[in-house]
Known about the structure:
Blueprint (H helix, E strand, L loop, with lengths): L5 E3 L2 E3 L5 E5 L5 H9 L4 E3 L11 H4 L3 H5 L10 E5 L12 H8 L4 E6 L2 H14 L7 H7 L2 H4 L3 H12 L4 E5 H6 L1 H12 L25 H8 L4 H7 L5 H8 L10 H22 L8 H7 L14
Parallel strand pairs: 3-5, 3-6, 4-5, 6-7
Antiparallel strand pairs: 1-2
Amino acid sequence: MDASSYRTRGVTLRAHPDFLVIGAMKSATTTLHVQLARQPGLSMSPVKEPNFFSDDENYEKGFAWYEGLFLDAAQGSIRGESSTHYTKLPTYPRTVDRIADALPGVKLVYVMRHPVDRLVSQYVHERTVGRTADGLHEAIDGVPELIEYGLYSMQLRPYLETFGPRNVLPVFFARLVSHPQQELERICAFLGYGGRPCWDHTLKPLNVGSERLRRSALRDALVTAPVLTPLRQKLVPKPWTEPLKALWRANTERPKLSRNLERRLRDEFDPDLERLGSWLGIALNCANFHEKTETRAWEWADPRRTDWA
């Protein structure tokens, strides 16, 4: 792998990622991150979701902090990180420019799930973290990101314009689930990996959100108060830790969609999917999304394309 440094804002980046998994949120990026990390010669950042280029507070930590995520990578390994905030427009509008400034030759992997399934999964996440207590119908109006983060052509367009289609790999959740070994091989080939990747089927699909605890001021006070830490550690045996966590673990059931809401979401997502499909050379919409994206791996129809309108 080319070990050349990148220069940005007068700073030389000697330890930098060769690729980024840029999303989408709730599309198996955690599972992919872990599977890639298990391949000899591939090194993933120990922190999944560093969100360096998207979140202002992380970007302000400086490039030395970001380099630190890759300093322990083996010499010659292909290095990567996974941050779904990188495809969260319009929430993080400066992301693409920052990446282009720091990593002009970086490769990008974008995983896309059926937009309605992804929306529902994000909704469950938002309820879990306490961002909304509304039902799904009301939340869609109150949390516009539920739809925005699933507008894939809108999220991809600035990356395709900036980095070109040869440096952006479209991956679909349904295909990754049904043909994980083939998709891993395709992703690794895109990254220039010279080894023989192997999907570890002993690992269960990972979902960080499912392990998230419900918000509780009382629990947080008990856990974070320094004066109570020695007492808690003495009185709460380790075997009790997980059962106690289970009591607090969020358990938000996935809501069922009414026909009216299904129609509304199709109207929201279908124009975006039609545009995405035109870039891939297929007719794509909510109704055929599962079938089309599972049956084969799709690439950009014209890798020389420059107009992404």
